[in-house]
């Protein structure tokens, strides 16, 4: 028998506990990302003043390899971790390029 989509479903305490943990982790991830971007904004401003390039391909490759290894150790898909890190790196580079333009 299926539940009518309009009728409230009694909250399963086990599911509620899992969801609460997921919500807490999601909040922590947002805070960690916010702090990471605060720091990378400062790096971008520094690079712009020091006339350093916005991207550092060697550093990026090292970070990707390091985090792929950490992902494997943590039983997280290394392909996923690389895609996630690449997304962050690309956003950071975009910010660094903007800081460079603002400095010029």
UniProtKB/TrEMBL annotation:
Domain (Chorismate mutase) ranges: 9-100
EC number of the protein: 5.4.99.5
UniProt superkingdom: Bacteria
InterPro entries: Chorismate_II_sf, Chorismate_mutase-related, CM_bact, CM_dom_sf, CM_II_prokaryot
Keyword Transcription regulation: no
UniProtKB keywords: Isomerase
Gene Ontology terms: biological process: chorismate metabolic process; salicylic acid biosynthetic process
The protein's enzyme class: isomerase
GO MF annotation terms: chorismate mutase activity
Protein name: chorismate mutase
Organism, as annotated: Qipengyuania vulgaris
């Amino acid at each position: 028998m299926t539940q009518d989509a309009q009728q409230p479903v009694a909250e399963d305490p086990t599911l509620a506990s899992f969801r609460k943990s997921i919500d807490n982790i999601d909040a922590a991830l947002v805070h960690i990302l916010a702090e990471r971007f605060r720091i990378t904004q400062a790096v971008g401003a520094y690079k712009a003043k020091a006339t350093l390039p916005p991207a550092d391909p060697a550093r990026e490759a090292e970070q990707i390899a390091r985090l792929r290894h950490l992902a494997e150790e943590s039983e997280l898909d290394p392909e996923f971790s690389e895609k996630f890190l690449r997304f962050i790196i690309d956003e950071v580079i975009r910010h660094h390029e903007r800081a460079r333009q603002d400095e010029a």
